[in-house]
Amino acid sequence: MATLCFAVNGTVAAAPLADASETADWLRVADLLSTGSEVAEAQPDGTTALIWASYHRNADLARELLERGADPDATNRYGLSALSQAALVGEAELVGVLLEHGADPNAALPEGDTPLMLAARSGSLESTRLLLDAGAEISTRDGHHGETALMWAAGENHADIVSLLLEHGAEVDAVSTEFTWDLTQTGVSSELPIGGLTALMHAARENAIDAARVLLDAGADPNAADPRGLSALRVAITNTNVDLGMMLLDAGADPNEGALVEAIKLRTIFTPRAAKDRIEQATPMDMIVRLLDAGADIEFVPEEGMVKQMWIDDIHPNEKPLYLAAQEQDIELMELLIGRGADAATTFSSEGMSVLWAALGMDQHNGNGGMAIPRPDMEHSLRVGAYALEHGAPVDTTNEWGETALHMAATLGWADLVSFLLENGTPLDVRDDNNRLPVHAANAIPRFMNEAMMPLRVDPVVYPEIIAMIRDAMAAAGVEETEWVEPPPPEPEEETAASETPDEAEEA
Length: 508
Known about the structure:
Blueprint: H1 16-22, H2 26-34, H3 49-55, H4 59-67, H5 82-88, H6 92-100, H7 115-122, H8 125-133, H9 149-155, H10 159-167, E1 178-185, E2 188-195, H11 199-206, H12 209-217, H13 232-238, H14 242-250, H15 259-268, H16 284-293, E3 307-308, E4 311-312, H17 321-327, H18 331-339, H19 355-359, H20 378-390, H21 405-412, H22 415-423, H23 438-441, H24 464-477, H25 502-507
Antiparallel strand pairs: 1-2, 3-4
């Protein structure tokens, strides 16, 4: 590394050659060189004229500086050398000049990025070739994510460099470092395992379809998974990379890892996405059909959710494919899934709501706390609800709070939906966990969400029209209306003594 020169008074000596090189004042540089300016002089941060020559892609200046004795491996305070800079900007001629004059092909930045990684990232095939010929280590990993040059080339879709690295012995299924990410959501912290990606998974995430093709042809495992069990196929689909997902299926990717659920979410749930670098030929519906044709289990629910925009996928959590289709009132997709064997009679959400709830637009994944659910297009909702009933969706089931669909419709004040449920035989005498009949729900008596007895709606409303509708139906069916009596609060659970193990407590 070049040594900084200090004047007698302790200030940093001037570095006119480096300063002129920084501003690309080549006439001034030539004048300074002709008068014998010191090529090893460095600016206060250690940047030399040679590093600036690399920055500006000036191979002729770099050659002259090296011939005058410039140190090819000099670095500034950030650990940047002329070779790393040349590789970063993908300037093959500069890389060649520096290597010819003894630059170390394996000198890494403080973060562990080697010139080979930088060249692979920049897309310079010739720079990559020169570095490999000069002895660059192909399996070196960076110091933060443990990624190799192959992973960088794959993620940037530099298929020619991927091919070159593989020809030189790069390990096709090497994985990056696995570590944990402290993720905080709604005040709750958890440790999420991340990393552990292969080059193919990098390509799947970044829509690097050309690089993915080269990797698959070289034998990359299409079913390699990250620490949470997520494969390249599921990663590709959740990132809207449908064509690449099709390629993975053709290469033998398992259709039952959770890709069907992701493809349905991709079709039905709007999520802002970054601009695409290519136009997809296949649609999410094409992918859904392709997965079903490949044998995807139409009832499978993956346990692990995807991480999207800094939260685990709990806004639209993993449910059965048919439920997700009904949740978004996508009747075309419901028809496809039911036609392929999905059972509307046995499909419920994780909160106990039937396909009918979702089809009618009452799914609580679209509501939260003290907020009302937006009223859907009721004409469409009733059409989708009728389709769900025709194909076996039950009208009389309850959710995890003991409510029927009629309880919820009455709470929301949706009279046309209440009428639809009454016409289709919804039960009138079911009491929920807060001891409410459906008529009580229409009379501003709230349901409670949890053991803390927090109400679903902080502003319950009385709906006289709905009360009258339900009372008329109760009278016709001979169902007696009784007053609502608030149930006692739940008894607290007994705590296990700190000194007892769970087994000891059970024995006691």
